[in-house]
Amino acid sequence: MWVEFLITSLIVVVAPGTGVIYTVGVGLARGTAASFAAAAGCTCGIIPHMVAAIAGLAALLHTSAVLFQTFKWAGILYLLYLAWSIVKDDGPIQFKMESNAGPLRKVAVTGFLINILNPKLSIFFLAFLLQFVPADTPSPLAQMFVLSGIFMAMTFAVFICYGAFASRIRLYVQRTPSAIAWLKRGFSATFLMLGARLALETT
After folding, report:
1. pTM of the entire structure?
2. CB-count exposure of residue 161 (10 Å: 0-12, 13-18, 19+)
3. Block means of pLDDT (10 residues each) for the chain, length 203 residues?
């Protein structure tokens, strides 16, 4: 069971999703420290979803269309805001050499909000964690907490690697104005597409 859980978790975490894209973008724009803050924020953003899954609240989210739509549209609007802030160079991802100003706390909070405003995560973790809790487990609740802790640790470690890699190539990329322009367009378009994909999601 543990081997299957670790392999599956690694595949899920490594797959480029919203959190990965955000962490890479911050690493390219602001460097190592900011990318670590982004990784921490994104990781913390999955805590409420895991708690909801363990407590059974994810099932309520799945059955309540109003609650699901409220979270979904809040997430969509936030992704659209991120796309616009990249174009305007006014947000946590600013592709300019002097963009080191601004608190890392804001970078972490943005990562937190990106994940917490995605209602599909709660439903995902409810289905995901239950697969690895045997029916004869003496304490299924404790087992789910352990699995959640391992998943979060893997998430943080993988995101740190993504951010560190992006930070390493940052100086090379930002020496070329045309590359910066393409990065801005690319990341802005990516967040727009993520918002559109979330808009198409249903319970």
Report:
1. 0.86
2. middle
3. 86 89 92 94 92 77 78 89 85 67 85 89 81 79 87 95 92 78 87 88 70
